[in-house]
Design a protein that fits this description.
Layout (H helix, E strand, L loop, with lengths): L2 E7 L11 E3 L12 E5 L9 E4 L13 E5 H6 L7 E7 L8 E6 L6 H11 L2 E4 L3 E4 L4 E10 L2 E3 L1 E4 L4 E6 L3 E7 L14 H20 L4 E12 L16 E2 L5 E13 L5 H19 L12 E3 L7 H12 L13 E7 L4 E4 L1 H14 L2 E6 L10 E4 L12 E2 L5 E4 L30 H7 L14 H9 L14 E2 L8 H7 L1 H4 L35 H6 L1 H10 L4 E2 L14 E3 L24 E6 L52 E3 L4 E3 L15 E5 L12 E3 L13 E3 L3 H5 L7 E2 L5 H7 E8 L1 H11 L9 H14 L3 E3 L8 H10 L7 E2 L20 E7 L2 E8 L2 E9 L7 E9 L7 E8 L8 H9 L15 E9 L3 H6 L14 H18 L22 H8 L25 H12 L21 H8 L19 E3 H9 L8 H10 L3 E3 L11 E2 L1 E4 L16 H7 L3 E3 L27 H6 L5 E7 L11 E7 L1 E2 L5 E7 L4 H17 ...
Parallel strand pairs: 1-5, 7-13, 14-15, 14-19, 17-41, 19-21, 20-22, 21-24, 34-36, 48-51
Antiparallel strand pairs: 1-6, 2-5, 3-4, 3-6, 7-10, 8-12, 9-10, 10-11, 15-17, 15-18, 16-17, 22-23, 25-26, 27-32, 28-31, 28-33, 29-30, 35-40, 36-38, 37-38, 38-39, 39-40, 41-42, 43-52, 43-53, 44-47, 45-47, 46-48, 49-50, 50-52, 54-58, 55-56, 56-57, 57-58
Length: about 1500
């Protein structure tokens, strides 16, 4: 066997050695690029085998003869020493193909569309553990984490079309819910409180694993509980308690409490958070149970619920209300959503059937990971188990159960040892006494008080035979009918029914009329009678207790007297494997994240089955993981090990005991690095009496069969009592994203019977041909294949999955060839001619260009066929869709910085996915986002909302110098306004990708970055002449020669721009001043001058030649016109004389000051660089941002200085400028946006930008980027460029949420967020005088608003112009919103229309008043005056925490100092508010005196 000398190289150090593998082509004449080679040591054929791919073969980059070179990090990881001899041979990729691969990524947003494209990119490539993958076209960085092949974990392999790729995110949005039920105050078997077990044990370990893996999750931690009140009717409650009370199915009154401990935080070290949780625990129960206590007031007794009776499903829905709005507040530094409920219970919950259906559908449809972690002991039956509320109170009524596969269950146990025993109890024994048990019904008490002699003894009744009879599978013919009541088969065992009737003593206990047990189906998936729930079990808190408790055992006997069965198989949680259910798409939605075990079924790696220890031979495959170190590696932090008295190895890697490689990995906070021997990734198990191996030891159902087990996430693992569930640390640390592939498609018969089929065809070429003739702006259309890929991408982005159909073995080779020949078509695509809907689709030879994609979400299936220039979209939706369900839920929550538990309410609703307008979306893609098909709210498009705010130096005064008072912000002075507008214009030029022909003076900022030169500007913007994004444009190709002038003039213009004269003050070359008698024509000619004129923009598509903006023209005229002539009037006169016109060519558009385009009409139309206007106003404004400037007319015309009297004290207050403006004009406008400015993407990307139509100094300016056909990293790249440019221009571009205030009772409100109400003291005047008594009554409410506005301005808040919300209620109070100049917080003033002391005019206002102001339902209570304060949770965590005040005692944050100081000011602490009022009155007196003196002086001058 030929060997080669091995050397190593470091990538990047030597240009010629840039690949993982470098070899000499002469040694390998048959090798070609793309071949996969296997490398291993000749003396250790069964040892470590490395697979690498040949990525380059040329004579320039080669090694010496018989030498190969591999990258040094790979050599270290695979223990290959340099200068040793190795064997290298080419292998068949199919032999080393991977079944599944897990890829991790961090600190970036990767949408499902990008995942599909990355999968396509990786197909037919070779990977190895820890390989870093850079997908430059999409700017995606990720790393290989784990690979599986033939039931084993391997260290390297080849990704094929059939490989399942699992994406795991190290930066997700994680909600941790701690159920503070009564068991949290109980002790476990080791003497620890369950709370200590949850926090000191589980959470501590979880945070350690996050740190080890370098996770950077955005975490919210919530403590929740349910409080029951001992009351029979509502009258027993005082009025202040009734707002949030709810009643359960037994008529009990209860209230749910949520305490938000941590909200949207990221930490490198979570130890401080654990201390905070311990502190909350000490007072939690007392606070919640005694929350409503008042002096001299009696309230019903409050008790904390058990875990079983708690608000488990409500918690999951609350997180879903946040998660399903992920497209509204899109961030670019995290991907994935995870909801974790930590409970002291055992995984059994008493739930409402309707709410279960909602929760299941929402969790599955939204693709959200839901984990349940139990710190109680694992019971001896299958869990998680949901017990439905039984509203039928007769003893014969059957209890109904469900085993939810959509919850990933973990059981946490500590490492503590008991010295005297290895026994661990699997049940928690119930308390013997039931006298004080409120849940025991009266009839049951009577029954249990019977004489012992009346009990049925075991000798008379064969329970096992009875169970066998009850739980037997149904006959096949009965599975399709829900109406048929199946009779129980006769047995030789005397039935309980006959025995009971023979004994007269029992007659009073057995009902004479047997009710039908047919119930509404508990599982939305199971509509074919293929599943049922367990009847006849008790109402106890868990089934373990029901076995151990004598009272419940006896009750069970009575309740099963009539042997009547519903038309479905009953499930016995003690042996659930007897019942299988029909496979559905919901059942298979998450299965592709699970690897295949040795027996070929999907396994969950945290499930262990106790089996006798035996010697397992080392089965050696070519790439098996070999273990060369000692096998005595013992881990102390694996919870499950101690249950079996064995070491089960690393917490993530529960593998069977084959040989493994000693491949080690260490995880740093930056990336997943290779090399720390202490964190040996693949550790061999410790042999002992019992061996913990993945529970896949028995032959199970395979995915191809039509049935699946009811229990478990995969449906392929059979439950046995020997299965122990550990903790799924991998899911909790690096949660998996919803897989992009699945494998379920209905059969032909089901499609025909159960689905409604609809189809439509798209002809992109024809559509674009029509649009090319009618559109004013030409954009390169998408090809038919690009449209097809984009249509699939959009469905993936909305939660669909590609269906990977099982193909016949004979077609395997042709299918691979097809995928290779069709770039961009990955898993889920087949090439076919056959239009049948069979799950097994025949494959055509690769010469055909037909492609077909099958996709599904829930019970909706789409087939997208692409043939030639025709795309056919076939939709299958259920013939009988589920009815929409809506649950109204009230609760109390306490968020950080809030002072009380406030009332809130949300709706939990199921979304009707079949109503999504896919036809509209597909046409939007076909037409490249044309105005005929706008993005609608129902399309759930992604958006990123920003406010442009000026940087304020006052913040540094507080942060750096520790200024105690925060009301030090002053209004912008006039000088600053001029600079601000100049910078704003420059910034919008950048956003619009515009260039000026002659330079402007740049104002230098305090940032070290100088103003961009032409060269650096090019790098930032990549300006382009055409909006055709496909060819890569070189900056040198873009013409910047000024129109109708020679090179010399151009050079002169450049020279003028580079070396401005000292006397310039407007940024333009100064050459002339017009006399008072100058005509319009003279001014116009001077404006057109190529060097000294206004200055035009360089040639750009859809912009006419000689275009300028009105702001430039106004400033240019201001410095050159004398005698008080108004520049705006001069420009309007030029327009009327038809010298200039709006750049769209619309003569009806007047001259508006601002960033608004106009062009010179009189041009040489035969000139080479002449470009005509579009002559279509709507098309023009769809292309360009046009922004009017308000409130700064003094910059181009002398205006009288405004009075300095505070607005709230003026005789006639100045109206709100935005209110005035919004009455007659649009607040916002949308424009088309080219997103891929740096030409990086391999797809056609575009979006839209929504922006304010007005910019006013002192106001926040809003920009919203909206997109569906763009990649997250590309959008992020664009916005990052804008943010850098804004910083250079003296602004900051701050991301803000779509709903900043998150007010309760509003449609899209975050359920765990809410505004803080800060009351304003209005009784600070001496003698209790009312404010504004000296002014007319009808002006007082406005004056109160202006007073509040002035206070906010002192604290650095700026007004935000909001779009008018459409409302039918005209009496709704007006709302005014403000944002702090740092962007960190928002404030809202809600003022009445007549008087600030008003009655609440509507239900929503009443709710709001109750919720925020602490009032009751009584709407006659006057509303307090004050502010609503909310935090901006979109601010990146590092930026948020960077504002720590220097030298503060405990690292106080600037934001919290602001809130504290604002509260003190508004409450008139230290008479600050009274002093402010006095100072304002004094300022008014001085101003009036000054104005009076000025007026007298001017009168005297006139007399003289």
């Amino acid at each position: 066997m030929k060997t080669y000398k091995l050397i190593t190289h470091t990538r990047g150090c030597n240009k010629s050695y840039d690949a993982d593998l470098v070899l000499n082509p002469q040694d390998h004449p048959t090798a070609k690029v793309g071949d996969v080679v296997e490398i291993y040591a000749p003396d250790d054929e069964n040892g470590t085998h490395l697979l690498l791919q040949i990525t380059e073969l040329n004579e320039q980059n080669k090694t010496g003869r018989n030498v190969i070179s591999i990258e040094s990090c790979i050599a270290v990881a695979f223990k290959m020493k340099p200068y040793t001899h190795v064997v290298m041979r080419i292998v068949n990729p199919a032999d080393v193909a991977l079944d599944s691969i897990e890829i991790t990524f961090k600190d970036q947003y990767m949408g499902r569309s990008e995942m599909w494209r990355l999968k396509t990119y990786l197909t037919n490539t070779c990977v190895y553990v820890n390989k870093k993958i850079d997908y430059n076209d999409m700017q995606i960085r990720c790393q290989v984490y784990e690979m599986w092949s033939q039931g084993e974990r391997v260290a390297s392999g080849v990704i094929t079309d059939d490989t399942k790729i699992v994406f795991r995110s190290s930066t997700s949005m994680v909600y941790l819910f701690l159920q503070m039920s009564s068991e949290m105050w109980d002790f476990d078997i080791h003497g620890d409180l369950y709370f200590e077990k949850a926090v000191n044990g589980f959470l501590t370990e979880l945070f350690q694993k996050w740190k080890k893996l370098g996770c950077n999750h955005e975490v919210t931690i919530v403590l929740f509980s349910r409080t029951f009140y001992a009351a029979k009717n509502l009258d027993e409650f005082p009025a202040h308690m009734r707002d949030c009370l709810q009643q359960d199915y037994k008529g009990r009154y209860y209230e749910d409490f949520y305490r938000v401990a941590i909200q949207n935080e990221r930490n490198d070290d979570w130890c401080t958070v654990l201390a905070q949780l311990r502190k909350l625990f000490t007072s939690y129960q007392a606070t919640v149970l005694r929350y409503h206590e008042r002096q001299n007031m009696r309230i019903p007794l409050a008790t904390n619920s058990t875990a079983t009776q708690g608000n488990f499903l409500e918690v999951l829905n609350i997180s879903l209300n946040t998660f399903e709005k992920h497209y509204l507040d899109r961030t670019f530094d995290r991907t994935g959503q995870l909801s974790v409920v930590i409970t002291p219970g055992v995984g059994v919950f008493s739930v409402d059937r309707e709410l279960t259906n909602i929760t299941k559908q929402r969790i599955i449809d939204n693709g959200v990971g839901s984990d349940l972690v139990c710190v109680g002991e694992q019971p001896l039956h299958a869990v998680p188990l949901l017990k439905f509320h039984n509203k039928d109170t007769t003893l014969t009524s059957a209890d109904d159960y469900s085993l939810p596969h959509w919850i990933n269950l973990s059981f946490y146990s500590t490492n503590k040892k008991i010295a005297y025993s290895n026994f661990i109890p699997r049940i928690k024994l119930p308390i013997l006494s039931f006298d004080d048990d409120p849940d025991v019904e009266e009839s049951e008490r009577n029954f249990l008080s019977c004489n012992q002699s009346e009990y049925i003894h075991n000798s008379l009744f064969d329970y096992d035979a009875y169970d066998e009879q009850i739980f037997q599978p149904l006959p096949a013919q009965s599975t399709c009918s829900l109406q048929r009541v199946v009779r129980a088969k006769k047995t030789s065992v005397p039935s309980f029914e006959t025995y009971a009737y023979r004994n007269n003593d029992w007659e009073n206990l057995t009902p004479t009329k047997i009710p039908s047990l047919r119930r509404k189906m508990s599982d939305p998936d199971i509509h074919h009678g293929t599943s049922g729930m367990l009847a006849t079990l008790s109402d106890a808190t868990n089934l373990s207790e029901s076995l151990a408790s004598e009272k419940n055992a006896r009750r069970t006997i009575v309740s099963i007297a009539p042997i009547v069965r519903p038309g479905r198989a009953l499930i016995n949680p003690f042996d659930p494997s007897h019942v299988t259910i029909k496979l559905t798409s919901n059942r298979r939605r998450w299965t592709h994240i699970f690897p295949k075990g040795p027996t070929g079924v999907l396994i969950q790696q945290h499930h262990y089955q106790a089996v006798p220890a035996k010697t397992v031979p080392a089965i050696n495959y070519s790439r098996h993981l070999q273990h060369s170190n000692s096998t005595n590696n013992n881990t102390n932090n694996n919870n499950e090990n101690n249950e079996f008295n064995s070491s089960a190895g690393d917490q993530f890697d529960q593998m069977s005991t084959h040989s493994m490689i000693s491949l080690t990995r260490s995880f740093t906070s930056q990336n997943f690095a290779i090399g720390d021997d202490k964190s040996d990734f693949f550790k061999k198990r410790h042999n002992s009496l019992l061996n913990a191996t993945p529970a896949a030891n028995v032959p199970n159902l395979t995915a191809t069969q039509a049935k699946s087990y009811l229990w478990g996430a995969t449906g392929e693992q059979e439950w046995t009592p020997a299965i122990t569930t550990g903790v799924d640390w991998k899911s909790l640390s690096i949660p998996a994203c919803l897989p992009i592939t699945t494998d379920y498609f209905p059969d032909k018969r089901s499609l025909h019977n159960d689905y409604v089929i609809s189809a439509y065809t798209l002809l992109p070429d024809d559509v674009n041909q029509d649009y090319a003739t009618s559109r004013a702006v030409y954009r390169k259309p998408l090809s038919t294949e690009e449209v097809c890929k984009e249509i699939v991408s959009q469905r993936l982005a909305q939660g669909f999955q590609l269906i990977v159909v099982e193909e016949k073995p004979t077609t395997a080779s042709s299918s691979n060839a097809c995928s290779a020949s069709g770039p961009g078509v990955g898993s889920g695509a087949t090439t076919t001619n056959n239009q049948s809907t069979s799950a097994v689709l025949p494959v055509k030879p690769p010469c055909e260009s037909n492609k077909e994609f099958l996709l599904s979400i829930g019970r909706i299936f789409h087939k997208i066929s692409f043939s030639g220039s025709v795309i056919t979209v076939t939709g299958y939706r259920p013939r009988h869709p589920y009815p929409p369900i809506n649950v109204d839920y009230r609760y109390r929550f306490h968020a950080p910085q809030h002072e009380t538990y406030e009332i809130s309410g949300v709706n939990f609703t199921t979304e009707k996915l079949e109503n999504f307008s896919w036809n509209h979306m597909d046409l939007y893609i076909c037409t490249r986002g044309d105005v005929d098909y706008p993005l609608m709210e129902s399309l759930k498009y992604w958006r990123f909302r920003m406010y442009l705010l000026p940087r304020d130096s006052m913040v540094n005064k507080i942060v750096s110098f520790g200024c105690q008072r925060c009301d030090i912000f002053t209004e912008a002075v006039v000088d600053n306004t001029r600079e601000q507008i100049e910078d704003f214009v420059r910034l919008i030029e950048t956003v619009s990708k515009l260039k000026r022909q002659n330079g402007r003076k740049a104002r230098q900022h305090d940032t070290p970055t100088p103003r961009n030169t032409e060269k650096t500007h090019n790098l930032l913007n990549s300006p382009q002449q055409s909006i055709d994004v496909r060819p890569k444009l070189d900056a040198s190709r873009i013409s910047r020669i000024l129109p109708s002038q020679d090179a010399a003039t151009a050079a002169a213009a450049t020279a003028t721009a580079v070396a401005p004269r000292d006397d310039q003050d407007d940024g333009f070359p100064m050459d002339i001043k017009f006399s008072a008698s100058a005509t319009l024509a003279e001014m116009f000619e001077a404006m057109k001058h190529p060097v000294n004129g206004v200055g035009f923009f360089t040639q750009t598509q859809s912009l006419p030649s000689c275009t300028f903006i009105s702001y430039d023209a106004l400033i240019w005229l201001r410095s050159r016109v004398t005698n008080g002539r108004h520049p705006l009037e001069l420009l309007e006169a030029m327009r009327k004389e038809r010298m200039i016109c709006h750049a769209s060519g619309d003569w009806n558009q007047p001259v508006v000051p601002g960033f608004v385009f106009y062009y010179v009409v009189q041009q040489d139309k035969n000139a080479k660089d002449y470009a005509p206007p579009l002559n279509e106003y709507s098309a023009f404004v769809n292309e360009w941002l046009e922004i009017e400037l308000q409130g700064c007319g003094f910059l181009w015309h002398d205006e009288p200085a405004p009075t300095k009297v505070p607005n709230f004290l003026r005789d006639t207050p100045a109206p709100q400028s935005w209110t005035e403006y919004c009455m007659n004009k649009r607040v916002c406008r949308k424009s088309h946006l080219e997103i891929d400015v740096n030409q990086k993407s391999d797809r056609m990307e575009w979006g839209h930008v929504k922006h304010h139509t007005v910019m006013q100094p002192g106001f926040a300016f809003e920009l919203v980027v909206e997109w569906v056909t763009s990649s997250g990293p590309i959008v992020s790249d664009l916005i990052s460029g804008w943010m850098r440019k804004a910083n250079q221009c003296g602004f900051q571009l701050v991301s803000v949420p779509a709903d900043p205030m998150a007010e309760p009772f509003t449609e899209k409100s975050d359920p765990l967020r809410g505004p803080i109400f800060i009351p304003l003291c209005v009784t600070f005047l001496p003698d209790g005088a009312a404010l504004f008594d000296e002014f007319p009554e009808n002006s007082r409410s406005d004056r109160m608003l202006f007073l509040q506005e002035t206070i906010l301005a002192r604290f650095g808040f700026m007004p935000c112009v909001l779009e008018e919300k459409f409302t039918l209620n005209k009496d709704m109070p007006k709302e005014y919103q403000y944002v702090h100049c740092t962007g960190n917080m928002f404030a809202l003033i809600r003022c009445a229309s007549k008087n600030y002391q008003v009655e609440s005019p509507s239900r929503q206002e009443a709710n709001f008043t109750r919720c925020v102001y602490g009032h009751t339902n009584n709407t006659n209570v006057p509303k307090k005056v004050g502010f609503l304060w909310a935090w901006n949770h979109m601010i990146p965590n590092k930026k948020w925490k960077a504002l720590t005040i220097n030298n503060s005692a405990d690292g106080e944050l600037f934001q919290l100092r602001m809130l504290k100081d604002f509260r003190e000011f508004c409450s008139n602490s230290d008479q600050r508010l009274a002093k402010f009022w006095t100072d304002s009155q004094e300022l008014k007196r001085k101003c009036l005196k000054f104005e009076y003196n000025n007026n007298n002086n001017s009168d005297d001058a006139k007399i003289v």
